[in-house]
Amino acid sequence: MATKSEVVFEDFFPSMVEKLGADGFMNELCNGFRLMMDSGKGAITFESLKKNSAVLGLQEMNDSDLICMLNEGDLDGDGCLNLMEFCVLMFRLSPDLMKRSRMLFDVTL
């Protein structure tokens, strides 16, 4: 059982890919990014994440938790998430999708 400060993430991404297909799933990820981004900066900032935290069910998270979430996906160190960083983070949060991504998206390493 989750504590008050713990976020429980149920991974629906694999079933979404099966239902929507790879292109449909990527479109939904892009829609999610646009929902959370700061439209003036074209990225998810601390402020935009905090503003939208209730929509995400994260209203109980404190500022340092939100900053940690941003830092987890911030690959270029600018303090926010661009679309590519957001998508990479979403894939990383889904172990099942990561395992199946080579097959689903024809990714060759």
Q: Any overview of this molecule?
A:
It is a single chain. With 109 residues, this protein is an all-alpha fold. 57% of the residues lie in helices and 0% in strands. Helix 1 (13-36) runs antiparallel to helix 4 and helix 1 packs across helix 5. It is globular, with a radius of gyration of 14 Å. The N and C termini lie far apart (38 Å). Keywords: Calcium. This is Calcium-binding protein PBP1. InterPro entries: EF-hand-dom_pair, EF_Hand_1_Ca_BS, EF_hand_dom, KIC/PBP1/KRP1.
Task: Give the radius of gyration.
Answer: 14 Å
The end-to-end distance, rounded to whole angstroms, is 38 Å
The succession of helices and strands, N to C, reads HHHHH
Oligomer: single chain
Give the number of helices: 5
Outline: globular
Unreliable segments (pLDDT under 50, ≥5 consecutive)? none
Share of β-strand residues: under 5%
Q: Would you count the extended β strands for me?
A: 0
Helix content bin:
55-70%
Helix/strand class: mainly alpha
Report the major sheet. none
Mean pLDDT: 81
